[in-house]
Design a protein that fits this description.
Elements (H helix, E strand, L loop, with lengths): L10 H22 L7 H19 L4 H34 L2 H9 L8 H16 L2 H18 L4 H18 L4 H10 L3 H28 L8 H13 L8 H11 L4 H19 L1 H8 L5 H14 L2 E2 L5 H6 L1 E2 L6 H19 L2 H10 L5 H18 L3 H18 L4 H15 L7 H10 L3 H4 L4 H15 L13
Antiparallel strand pairs: 1-2
Length: 483
């Protein structure tokens, strides 16, 4: 049998599919606006993958080899896909149980004029951690906080910066967040190892952010008016049975996570605990979701299942809360799963013929140390946030590009996954034409470039991850068993 000869790709070969992807994603932002995640970006990835496949076959690679690599790449993402489905279920039961409403209710208790900005970061962090979504946090409780802050005479860009700082902290640290699941999937580590390792850079960044906003808060003269806050709390109290026992659900889940129980069973336990809490504490919510006229046992079964798999909403009579208190269960994760599958196809094709490796080889020439490698990763993530206009691409493409390089330099994959979040997730909202920047700017009514100087958490995160790498602080090596 004659051996099939393949050609080594040039840098132009390698960049053509990425340029096609960037072009298509840019058009999607123009033509589809906020709806790019509904399918247009997935199609863009598939079309770019087709271009990469054509180039690969022109270089002599057979479709059998390309498709085999695609299947292997998709297989590597299956654990994250299963976790995403379970996250959708958990979000649903935590809503109907009153866990998320209780977190918001008690979080609002810390509001005080002199520490409003600090509280805005804290509350946004809390809600985003509970929901796993910066977009939902900004569009709901963030809008309420903006109104309260404006009534106190605080500058809108400063308030927006505080809200976004907190929302993106929660987004990158919450196990419910899609980006928090996507980053370790791209790097080759597990969810909770990724979250624990992010604390090394995220903890100091959040502390610095809190200090900055405390200084700003105490140096500004404000007049308190917490009417809106009281209205939100009243609506929550009238709709849910709010009590401290609800905190047992997240506390138990945190203990389970600390005990290093694998992510999938941990999230399953958290989901079931939420369902049990709903049945015990929220019988009126159970009946509202299931429909009147049913036995409580049947209503509990129906409501718990609906919360896990589909669309549910709880009517509070408060528009801000009604937008927040709705989930889509497992079904709501399908678009993200579609995006992951499309990204895996693109990455698989790019890997099969060495196109990604060709680009990586050029970048890695500048990475002579751990610090320079992390710096290169940060720059690449920001580059894709600016050019591809999508935070998912800024995680997926650099993740696939650098995974083998980190391994070759004897560095554990959690450093890569942490860097992807520190640079990819949090800087997306700082780009006006990025889907994140455009959305948050419109929702808050503050121009991206106006709130950018005050989004301290987002600005400091990539700097912190570079600094920690250059200082060689707790950098995990493959042969080591501990940090």
């Amino acid at each position: 049998m004659t051996k099939i000869e393949t050609k080594k790709p040039t840098l132009l070969h390698a960049f053509i599919p990425i340029l096609v992807l960037i072009g298509l994603l840019a058009l999607n932002v123009v033509f589809f606006g906020d709806a790019t995640l509904d399918g247009s970006n997935q199609i863009a990835l598939l079309l770019a993958a087709s271009v990469a496949a054509i180039i690969s076959m022109r270089l002599g690679y057979k479709w059998f080899k390309i498709s085999k690599r695609i299947v292997k790449t998709i297989s590597s993402a299956m654990p994250s896909i299963l976790i995403l489905l379970m996250i959708g279920a958990l979000a649903g039961t935590w809503l109907i149980s009153g866990v998320v409403p209780a977190l918001i209710y008690y979080g609002l208790e810390v509001l005080h004029p002199s520490i409003f900005l600090f509280a805005a970061v804290f509350i946004s962090s809390l809600v985003s951690l509970a929901t796993g979504s910066s977009w939902t946090t900004v569009a709901t409780i963030g809008v309420a906080l903006l109104g309260i802050g404006v009534a106190m005479g605080i500058s809108k860009p400063v308030i927006a910066g505080a809200i976004i700082s907190g929302a993106y902290f929660g987004d990158k640290m919450s196990p419910l967040s899609d980006t928090t699941n996507l980053a370790p999937a791209m790097a080759g580590t597990d969810l909770f190892t990724h979250i624990r390792y992010m604390i090394i850079t995220t903890g100091p960044t959040l502390i610095i952010t809190f200090i900055i906003f405390l200084v700003i808060g105490f140096t500004q003269k404000v007049n308190a008016d917490v009417t809106d806050t009281e209205a939100v709390q009243t609506a929550i109290k009238q709709t849910f049975n709010i009590n401290p026992f609800l905190f047992l659900v997240p506390v138990i889940l945190i203990v389970i996570i600390i005990k290093e129980v694998p992510p999938l069973p941990s999230l399953m336990i958290g989901t079931l605990l939420g369902a049990v809490a709903a049945i015990i504490f929220q019988p009126h919510i159970i009946n509202q979701i299931a429909g009147e006229g049913l036995s409580y046992a049947k209503a509990s079964y129906i409501s718990s299942f609906k919360a896990m798999y589909g669309n549910i909403s709880v009517d509070t009579g408060n528009k801000v809360l009604d937008d927040l208190f709705s989930t889509s269960g497992m079904a709501g994760m399908l678009l993200t799963i579609w995006l992951i599958l499309s990204a895996m196809i693109f990455g698989g094709v790019m890997e099969s013929s060495g196109l990604l490796r060709r680009i990586t080889d050029e970048i890695v020439k500048f990475a002579k140390s751990t610090g320079s490698l992390v710096t290169s990763t940060v720059a690449t993530c920001i580059f894709f946030n600016i050019t591809a206009s999508d935070q998912y691409i800024s995680i997926v493409v650099p993740g696939k590009m650098f995974a083998k390089t980190y391994n070759k330099m004897n560095i554990k994959p959690e450093l890569l996954s942490r860097t992807l979040e520190d640079a990819g997730t949090v800087t997306s909202v700082l780009v006006p034409w990025n889907t994140c920047g455009a959305t948050q700017s419109r929702v808050l009514g503050v121009a991206t470039m106006d709130y950018l100087p005050y989004a301290f958490f987002n600005l400091i995160s990539p700097i912190m991850t570079i600094l920690v790498a250059y200082l060689n602080i707790k950098i995990r090596r493959i042969k080591e068993n501990v940090v």
